[in-house]
Amino acid sequence: MWTAEQWKDFEILDASGGERLERWSRFTLIRPDPQVIWQTEKKNPLWNRPNACYHRSAKGGGEWEFFDLPKQWQVHYRHLTFHLKPFSFKHTGLFPEQAVNWDWFSELIKKAGRPVRILNLFAYTGGATLAAAAAGASVTHVDASKGMVSWAKENAAASGLSDAPIRYLVDDCGKFVEREIRRDNSYDGIIMDPPSYGRGPKGEIWKLEDAVYPFIERTALLLSKRPLFFLINSYTTGLQPAVLSYMLNTAVKKDHPGTVTADEIGLPVTETGLFLPCGAAGRFVGA
């Protein structure tokens, strides 16, 4: 398992009974997690006095219960700063487990010894975008949500990266990729974090199991002649590391020499010393 262990402003304090007790800077949240199917004694006193708790509904969805939480606050990872706020379906605007991938591709970018162009698809609030830009790359950031793209710009400003070479686009990722293919554009690194299900700006439907493999095949056409990497993340339980590996080997490596690895990604749990699975990632590195 690839684990994000360098956080100082984030910590999973404990996990039990379908819930995670988390510290985000100086605030404590309780959020549901379907992976946490074990039941252990909740010894940490913060279980009883969180700043906020997200309650799942038996009918689907859920809602936040607030005790003492600001509408927005910040966390820091290395030299990056992120604005957080509780919003739709338990989220805060950041997936801390992705830091293990940020560190990985940042080193590749720094060691490349040449200008590097990165394409970040389904780019959300910009964690990967900012990590790549801070490492010295120029980045094209694409997400279908105008609100998420605006949030990413706020994070860039908070991180001192307002003037970094980042191009922000509100667009359907599939349509953007097709236009870039027609334009004969290319990128040295590609990052994609596709949702299980989603809609584009004009109602385009995205269903991961049906769309992801042909999408990887099409996106691989945008890799440069000297590709640095291709990264795909998955939170969908059906896409295990082996599946990500097979897709990268058959859709990317067949035309680009390099190596493919895939594994679960996770976060340490302070109370138990174990690691909580948080999805999987597949990595292609060019030869």
- Count of DSSP strands: 17
Q: Please write the CATH class name of the largest domain.
A: Alpha Beta
Please give the alpha-carbon distance between the first and last residues: 23 Å
What class, by secondary structure content?
alpha/beta
Radius of gyration: 19 Å
Strand order of the largest sheet: 1-16-17-15-12-9-10-11
Mean pLDDT: 94
Runs in which pLDDT lies below 50 for 5 or more consecutive residues are none
Question: What is the H level of CATH, i.e. the homologous superfamily of the largest domain?
Answer: Vaccinia Virus protein VP39
Shape: globular
Number of helical regions? 6
Overview of this structure, please?
With 287 residues, the chain is α/β, with parallel strands linked by helices. It has 2 domains: 7-84, Golgi alpha-mannosidase II (Immunoglobulin-like, Sandwich), CATH 2.60.40.1180; 96-286, Rossmann fold, CATH 3.40.50.150. The protein contains 6 helices and 17 strands. The strands form 4 sheets. It has an 8-stranded mixed beta sheet, sandwiched between helices. The chain has a 5-stranded mixed beta sheet with strand order 2-3-4-5-6, with no helix packed on it. Helix 1 (99-111) packs parallel to helix 2. The longest helix is centred in the middle third of the chain and has 13 residues, at 99-111. The model has no long low-confidence stretch (mean pLDDT 94).
Question: Nutshell version of this structure?
Answer:
This protein is of the alpha/beta class and 287 residues long. Helix content is 24%, strand content 33%. It folds into 2 domains: 7-84, Immunoglobulin-like, CATH 2.60.40.1180; 96-286, Rossmann fold.
